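Data deposition worksheet. Section B asks for the primary sequence of the deposited chain exactly as it was used as input, without tags or linkers unless they were present during the calculation. Section C holds the resulting structure in token form. Section D is free text for depositor observations; keep each observation to a single sentence. Incomplete worksheets are returned to the depositor.
Section A, Depositor: J.P.
Section B:
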Amino acid sequence: MTTHLQATTTLSNGVKMPWFGLGVFKVEEGPELVNAVQTAIRHGYRSIDTAAIYGNEEGVGEGIRQGLKEAGIKREELFVTSKVWNADLGYESTRKAFELSLKKLGLEYLDLYLIHWPVAGKYKEAWRALEQLYKEGRIKAIGVSNFQIHHLQDLMQEAEIKPMINQVEFHPRLTQTELRAFCKEQGIQVEAWSPLMQGQLLDHPVLKEIADRHHKSIAQVILRWDLQHGVVTIPKSTKEQRIKENADIFDFELTAEDMQLIDAMNENLRVGPDPDNFDF
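Section C:
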């Protein structure tokens, strides 16, 4: 069981990835972003997740530099993820997008690079580029985001290297049970985005009852539920108190009954786009 903030899961290629990290979706460039990344590193986070489409890789890079310096740790101790956007899916265009992300972040390599969405007819060429960059040592691990079972099956028919990660929308209203089972069978680590359903679950009575019983917040209960399901999670916050609070989930454990009650909240309800009907 995950017992501390810097605990890791071992991906299929042997790379160790923190179970818990900071997401920066919709956080604009500027001091708030830089400070959030720096603050997370100061408080022990060792995983930062961004994407080209977020438009904030430069700020994330600056936050990383300041955070590493302040914490007195090496770059190798941090796990940094970015993603190639839909408009750049193609062999050469993906390679160019990767170089641009790396330049903006000010890094020499990425720990994880993902195809952001499974755009029909485009992701296989992009994957070929990721495989090549991985072989060149420019990326420590490669994966996908928002891929359903049929997308993964289609990709793996021709892929030389199997995706190591599938980052998907995952929260108590969208438990992705079949997809998680498939990924586990294939040795693909599932990672959650929007674990708190963009704040829509923070007054739910079932979650409140469980939270009260454990003397925790609803957000902490949900994030703990993620980890106990073996799902890597990357909640977003820019406020220091929330960044600290989100990570304070390693001193309690949900019971089997708690887990079942939360699982039963599933409605297959998305807050993000449907991966089967999203191009740009």
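Section D:
The chain has one domain: 10-201+229-239.
The beta strands are 8-10, 16-18, 22-23, 47-49, 79-84, 110-115, 139-145, 165-169, 189-193, 232-233.
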